[in-house]
Automatic annotation (TrEMBL):
Transmembrane regions: 277-297
Xref: Pfam families: adh_short
The protein's name in its UniProt record: SDR family oxidoreductase
Recorded superkingdom: Bacteria
Entry-linked InterPro entries: NAD(P)-bd_dom_sf (IPR036291), SDR_fam (IPR002347)
Keywords for this protein: Membrane, Oxidoreductase, Transmembrane, Transmembrane helix
PANTHER family listed in its UniProt record: ALCOHOL DEHYDROGENASE
One of the record's GO molecular function terms: oxidoreductase activity
Family membership: Belongs to the short-chain dehydrogenases/reductases (SDR) family.
Matching SUPFAM superfamilies: NAD(P)-binding Rossmann-fold domains
């Protein structure tokens, strides 16, 4: 259903991931589209899908590498030449790069990343915002990240570019507050797109916790349409990360993020039994403790029962901490016993052979 026929959204980075999901939402709502990116084949195919599925009337594909000097100016000139009015600008295109800054990462890739994530986004905003203000109408969505508000070792330059995007956007929120033009920053947590592969971070632990790009795009789209200054998609869990980022010391945040960015440990088939055994023993201990507590509880006075209930409540967290530490200990004990047995096995075999001889 074309509810906003005649309006146009320009989206960078629509060929995949979050940008593609955003483009779909605009198409579903009846926007005409300008899609900007390097993969023009993919964008052409997407244009056909949108026309077929949602009756999108006009899709313009602009092939452009936004890491190149003045790429944004060229995009703007092409849009003007086609006499298209851009009502909504989405600066989604962005890349990351994984590795230690001093020794691992390549400067040319970092330079291109800064150009794309910072310069192109800023220039696109400058050019299209000027026209929006002249009309006193328009919306802009800038892709920031939860890394905008936390240091991120092993993705240091990327996090720096996203900190820029967030800060820049919030400054413009204030500058635009007396107009009908709005600007919104979208701060997703790690999301299930090709981003981590392209950044060389496919083995980072954080890729085990990725969220759905459809959800991210939907939350971003709704915040953009509502003219909100920022949105952290993903409900309470991600909002609590946001709050933590504002209140926790930077060193602590950097350590936390470093641990999330480290490579996943290699799976060790030999140790497969260890966690299972540990869980089994831990579960047994918990059941026995529960039975003992129930018996004790049933044999106490009303006053003591009230005290126990109070103590049980405040001890809840401590118990779960203690249980996980018991499990760790059991796992260690099992591992040590296993190593010792492996160490002693050849000696035992030799002694047996000598005895037989
Ligand atoms: N995935 C995450 O965990 C995550 C979390 C927070 C924020 N973000 C941000 O979300 C945005 C979208 O990322 P994604 O996760 O959807 O990753 P993605 O699937 O890799 O999409 C990146 C998009 O950027 C475009 N792009 C890359 N380099 C370009 C260049 N030089 N010129 C023009 N376009 C270029 C790509 O198109 P072409 O290859 O066709 O050019 C692609 O459409 C990025 O700004 C990213 O920083 C991602």
């Amino acid at each position: 259903m074309n509810s906003v026929t005649g309006k146009t959204a320009l989206i960078t980075g629509a060929s995949s991931g979050i940008g593609q999901e955003l483009a779909k939402l605009f198409a579903q709502d009846g926007y005409n589209l300008v899609l900007v990116g390097r993969s023009d084949d993919t964008l052409d195919r997407l244009a056909e899908v949108f026309k077929g599925n949602y009756g999108t009337q006009q899709v313009t594909v602009i092939k452009k590498n936004l890491s190149e000097e003045d790429a944004a100016q060229d995009v703007y000139n092409q849009v003007k030449a086609k006499d298209i009015t851009v009502n909504v600008l989405v600066n989604d295109a962005g890349v990351g790069l994984y590795g230690l800054f001093a020794t691992d990462t390549d400067w040319e890739r970092e330079k291109a990343m800064i150009h794309l994530n910072v310069l192109a986004l800023t220039q696109m905003t400058k050019l299209f915002l000027y026209d929006m203000l002249a009309r006193n109408e328009g919306k802009i969505l800038n892709l920031a990240s939860l890394l905008s508000i936390t240091p991120s070792p092993l993705m240091a330059v990327y996090a720096g570019t996203k900190a820029y995007v967030y800060n820049f956007t919030q400054s413009l929120v204030n500058e635009l507050k007396d107009t009908n033009v709005t600007i919104t920053a979208l701060l997703p947590n790690a999301t299930d797109t090709d981003f981590f592969n392209k950044a060389g971070a496919q083995n980072a632990k954080v890729t085990d916790e990725v969220q759905d790009p459809v959800m991210v795009a939907k939350d971003g789209y709704e915040a953009l349409m509502a003219g909100k200054p920022k949105i952290v998609p993903g409900g309470l869990k991600n909002k609590s990360y946001e709050v933590l980022a504002y209140v926790a010391p930077q060193e602590a945040l950097a350590s936390l993020m470093h641990s999330k960015m480290l490579p996943k440990p290699e799976p060790d088939a030999d140790n497969d039994m260890s966690p299972k055994l540990a869980w089994g023993i831990g579960f047994g201990i918990a059941v026995l403790a529960g039975v003992a507590l129930t018996v004790a509880y049933n044999n106490t006075s009303v006053y003591d029962k009230a005290r126990y209930r109070y103590k049980a409540k405040s001890a809840g967290n401590a118990i779960s901490d203690a249980l996980s530490s018991v499990l760790d200990t059991v796992a260690d004990v099992y591992q040590n016993a296993k190593s010792k047995a492996e160490e002693l096995a050849p000696k035992a075999k030799k002694a047996e052979e000598e005895l037989v001889a």
